[in-house]
Amino acid sequence: MEPVITPYGRFYNQDCVTGARAHLASGSVDLIVTDPPYGIDGDRLHRHYNRDETCVVGGYVEVPAGAYGEFSLDWILEAERVLRPGGSIYIVSGYTNLYHILHALRQTSLREVNHIIWKYNFGVYTRKKYISSHYHILFYEKPGGRRTFNLECRYGANEASDDGGSLNYRDREDVWAINRHYKPGMVKNKNELPTALLGRMIQYSSDEGDLVCDLFLGGCSTARTAIGLNRRTVGFEVSETIFAKRAPALAEITPGDLLASLRQPVIDPLRNQGKRWSRADLERLERRYAELRDGGKTRKASIAVLQQEFGRGRWSLERALKRTGDGR
Ligand SMILES: C[S@@+](CC[C@H](N)C(=O)[O-])C[C@H]1O[C@@H](n2cnc3c(N)ncnc32)[C@H](O)[C@@H]1O
Questions:
Q1: Residue with CA nearest ligand 1 atom 3
Q2: Is residue 50 very low, low, confident or very high in pLDDT (cuts 50, 70, 90)?
Q3: Ligand 1 atom with minimal separation from the 34 CA
Q4: Which of 150, 204, 300, 303 has the fewest CB atoms within 10 Å around its CB?
């Protein structure tokens, strides 16, 4: 099928390795969030939580278990190539073939940042053993550049819960309890990921305007969330049936439509006042200022945004911008 191309996204009905080689330059992607086929009996994947099978889009392309190791290495090497130095990758995986993914990752330069457990509802019901209700999320980085991690994108560092605990700390623990969408009667993909899960990865590990890639689009939930958070996106889905049913709707989304629903963190506006500017901070300032100006913001409006992001006063930012040489 023809690709879906919009001003904020490019989506291809192609195998992701061939597609990435054809359409993605080396070092061009800021963040990859992806959920490869699990190499198990794909046709049974959804049985346990989407019981109405008539609503599940068919055409899911599975990988034979015996080929999973080679398949994983192929796409992970491609992911390593397209990521920028300092770029991040999140891979969602079940347990069965996790070792193949870990083995492939160890054959690249990618470095582990966290191993996250996603605890979900609708686990497979069992009588003689415990109920499996989690997936693994491997969070890795490509060395050689500054990794984006927006520490206070969801909770300010000093925000406390009613019992006095730190909300920021809790949000960054590596076990995430997030329910899957329960969409009775609505069209869905097998194993569609919830917006809350995807949003958390995208908010922490990318900025507005960054390029977010999903190598296995499926129901396009990663792409939808990324566009909703005002990121640029690119993605691949090999199944023509799934692509035809799900990808065209991406052209209907208004970029940034999720931003208004986000929780606003309470951040001490002058938390970094008086601290020395590091070289990494100055580089980030230069990059973010250019992004805001290129996005159409005035100098004054850009500085107001940067005051929040950097926790410094206006004059400190003015002086730092002079040092970076961006006088716009
Ligand atoms: C686990 S699903 C992704 C689900 C997706 N995260 C969502 O929320 O809907 C994996 C998808 O990868 C697709 N796929 C399998 N092999 C592929 C390949 N080589 N290149 C691109 N897509 C592939 C499958 O058809 C399936 O739709």
A1: 218
A2: very low
A3: 6
A4: 300
